Amino acid sequence: MKIRLDKAIVEFIPENDIETAELKALWVRMGNCIGETKRLEPMGVYTPEDTTVKNVARFHMEGLSEQELKAVPAFFAPYDTDVYCVTCNKTVFVKKGDQIPICCGKLMEIID
After folding, report:
1. pTM surpassing 0.70?
2. Measured between alpha carbons, how far is 25 from 19 in angstroms, rounded to an integer?
């Protein structure tokens, strides 16, 4: 995912089909025209030079309802492919349009 900054505007540019689906899910959760628009607040410190942790920036989404907190977004395979679990290395074949399964509490990833 690329991120582009232009003054007060932030653009997220997905680089593959999974990132596109994740951005769509974020978009729906952030401001779905029902109720209040949500806010992303930075969590902790972002230190990409620290090699003891992953290069991850974390944000907390404020304003989610109980129902939104419990909801699990569905992601669908953009084409016939194998997906794998980054935790246990399990692989599963999914056909185009099938829901990508969750394994070990995380969405399985497409094998490129």
Report:
1. no
2. 10
Q: What are phi and psi of 4, to 5 degrees?
A: -120, 130
* pLDDT tens-digit series, residues 42-57: 888 888 887 777 788 8
Beta bridge partners of 110: 83
Q: Estimate to the nearest angstrom the gap between the alpha carbon of 66 and the chain centroid.
A: 19
**Terminal-residue alpha carbon distance, the chain:** 16
Farthest-apart Cα atoms in the chain, separation: 43
Distance (Å, whole) CA 4 – CA 1: 10
Those residues with Cβ within 8 angstroms of residue 14's Cβ, 6 or more apart along the chain or in another chain: 1, 20, 22, 23
pLDDT at 28: 76
Average pLDDT over residues 74-87: 88
